[in-house]
Each structure stands twice: as structure tokens, then as C-alpha cells.
């Protein structure tokens, strides 16, 4: 069931990406993302603390199709929705979350664990509001961003996700947006947020800056096939374009580890069979 991405298929997929059609000035750095996380090579670090999220659903503002994914945006002018703890020294503010997904349930996540692919991956993007005053400033700097990655696996319908899924038909085309209020992103976190991997990496979309503390959850959340099918009904293209393209395979190809250490908050492996199916009640 694990489908390895060959160079050939990666190139084919890149050709389908509106954001990857131009030759990119990829920073020649040593800490690009995403990665294949090799669980047995990750290093347990007893200093890693539990994550502390404090999200105010009232800061949720809108949902929009940027031509690559759908983005749920939060008001980040104050410290109302924050992340701290985990591997982080400072407090970070939530600015948006989005997903990456495949054309089928066989692939779609950006990170993989021991080459295991998931159909989708959620990214909750936060910036360091203790050191910087704007996202645009933080995005260029070391320890500027903290992104929580959550794998989605196919199973039962996720009630929290459904409110998002219901909004998607209104933003099918690139560039469209609708108001979206009172959404608590904590409902998209797995029930166990104490078990995670963390490593220094980059954004996986331009500008690809190496400013990200990655925190990848070991417990996936469960969503239904039908919910993922609505993700795939979105379009990379605007309403004016003659040929419409389905928004699928919007992930970056994996990047070399280059000597980095992936730290682990526990000795536990990927938590695929935990008793709790994940997804707190919204
Ligand atoms: Zn992302």
C-alpha cells in the first residue's frame, strides 16, 4: 500500500502544479522540507514538552482558494490564538491553516513516516510574535515560524472538518473567498498532541525559506473518503480559464535530510491504532 514516489512520477506531478511550473530559485540551504521521517532514526529528547495551543475561534476570518490549496485565515494582529511549549522557546501566533492532498487516497501528504504516505496533511502555520512584529518579517528568519503537521487518514467522517467541507463549494475557483467565522482549529488536532516529531525545516511553498520549526503529530486524524472527495472538487483555475484543472497533488516533493536530526517527544512510534480515533469534539 505504500507507494514510493519515484523521480519520474515526482516530475510528472510537478508539471501539474501551478506553483511549480516556473524554474524556482530554490534556496541552496540544508534544511528544506518536507522529509520522510525515519522513525527508528529519530532521537528521543526528554526536554521536549507537551504542546500548548490556545486558539480563539473568534479570530477566524475567511477561507479562500489561493490556486494551490484552500487557506483558512485568522486575525493575527494580537496574541489571541497562540501556540507555545513543545520544542518552542517563544510564543507563536496562528495566522492560517491549509491542507495538501492527492488525487487518490494512496498519497497526498508532504511528510511521510518510514515511507508511509497519507492521503492528506494539515498544516497549522504560526509565527513568532515575541521576536517579530509581522508574519512577513518572521517568515525570513530563524525560529520565525512554527508549523504543526497533522496526517489525515481515511476512516469515519470528521465532524469538525465537515464545517470546512461545507464551505468549499463556495470557493471552487482560484481567487474566490468567503467569510468564515468561529472555527476552532483545535478540533482538527489529534486527541494526543504529546507525541510528535520535530525538526528544523522550511516552508514547502515559495518562498521556501528555512524559518520553520516543524512539529509533526504521530497520531493522524480520521476523515471520510467523501470529505476528501470534496477537497478534490476544488480547482487550481479561476472561473475565467477555459480549461479547468482539479486541485489535487498539491504537495512538494521530498527533500534531503542533510545531516539534520529529527527529535521525538516519546519512544512511541506512529500511533495508527490508538484507542481514541482522534479529533476532539468541536
Ligand atoms: Zn503546507
TrEMBL record:
InterPro entries (UniProt xref): CA_dom, CA_dom_sf, Carbonic_anhydrase_a-class, Carbonic_anhydrase_a-class_CS
Residue ranges of domain Alpha-carbonic anhydrase in the record: 6-266
Gene3D superfamilies for the chain: Alpha carbonic anhydrase
Recorded superkingdom: Eukaryota
Catalytic activity field: hydrogencarbonate + H(+) = CO2 + H2O
Any GO molecular function: zinc ion binding
Gene Ontology BP annotations: monoatomic ion homeostasis
Keyword rRNA processing part of the UniProt annotation: no
A family per Pfam: Carb_anhydrase
SMART domains listed in its UniProt record: Carb_anhydrase
EC assignment: 4.2.1.1
One GO CC term on file: mitochondrion
Keywords: Lyase, Metal-binding, Zinc
Cofactor or coenzyme needed: Zn(2+)
Main function: Reversible hydration of carbon dioxide.
Record family assignment: Belongs to the alpha-carbonic anhydrase family.
Record's protein name: Carbonic anhydrase
Species this chain originates from: Cynoglossus semilaevis
